[in-house]
Amino acid sequence: xxxxxxxxxxxxxIYILTVRNALVASIADCQHLxxxxxxxxxxxxxxxxFEIKLAGITxxxxxxxxxxxxxxxxxxxxVTDADLIIIPALTGDLNTAVMLNREYTxxxxxxxxxxxxxxxxxxxxxxxxxxxxxxxxQCTTHWHCANELKFYYPAIEVVDERMITDQQGLYSxxxxxxxxxxxxxxxxxxxSREMAIYTAKYFAVDLDKNIQSPFIVFHGLKDHDDxxxxxxxxxxxxxxxxxxxxxxxxxxxxxxxxxxxxxFKKATRHTVAEYMQHVKIEGAKTQLEIGRRSIQEVMTYTxxxxxxxxxxxFRRITGxxxxxxxxxxxxxxxx
Length: 335
Description:
Blueprint: H1 6-9, E1 12-17, H2 24-43, E2 50-56, E3 61-63, E4 68-70, E5 74-75, E6 84-87, H3 94-100, H4 102-113, E7 117-120, H5 125-130, E8 138-139, H6 146-152, E9 157-158, E10 164-167, E11 170-173, H7 179-190, H8 193-203, H9 227-238, H10 246-252, H11 257-268, H12 272-290, H13 295-301, H14 307-318, H15 322-329
Parallel strand pairs: 1-2, 1-6, 2-5, 6-7, 7-11, 8-9
Antiparallel strand pairs: 3-4, 10-11
Helix pairs in contact: 2-7, 7-8, 10-11, 12-15
């Protein structure tokens, strides 16, 4: 594939897509970061590493109700030499954004088959998912839309705790500012670790942050048609402090355990046990943020009786220990 030989051929040709409903900041940040890397290299007496262009399907794209207009440097049919294609983050309803940008997804898929690499920023992964390129592969996205991605694209493994993913020339990033970590990852890949570190320092970005678990707020997937399971979700969320069991829940909602577990997993993309753990840990996070209870009291409040189990589950879901989480996010002022 062409991307295996990019560095030996000279500059990496980057095309940032001016898709409809894009987060304009993500387009501008990409363009700015790679341009600055070229400047940093010039200061060292080295040749630029990147050729950066905006690519679109129309001569002009309007964003934010016409407040911002962007004119692509090149139209998609005229691009024949892409090494790296970047899909910016999206705003608004994601399914609408996908439908508005189908032409981009087909084009990106064709370019990938010709050897280009494709990176999606945050919610831009929905366009990458629609292209079919991620089938059977991993990706990440903003935690807020992870359940929606899992629901509409079940053939993709969504690892939303990850900050970035890198699989066979396909890249994705988590939510918010996580795309900066992906951009730095690409800088390191195409230039050097030294340049990535320098760029990270310039933009004040934590280069090696690799999980977004501490920032995730759990919202159980309720965009489904199984009303009984929705009732079960609501019951779990209200009674999370109690020691609920799957058998008790199945009886409460007049199902066999096997049927209840099957329907619950199909509707929510979580097992019943996973769902209860996530709800309990979300309750624990809230208490730790308030900062008025000890770790032991928070553990008891959320229905755990074993300290080791509580710590292990909390760390697996958030990527931090309860103490680390409280120290970082507590609203209480220090003594």
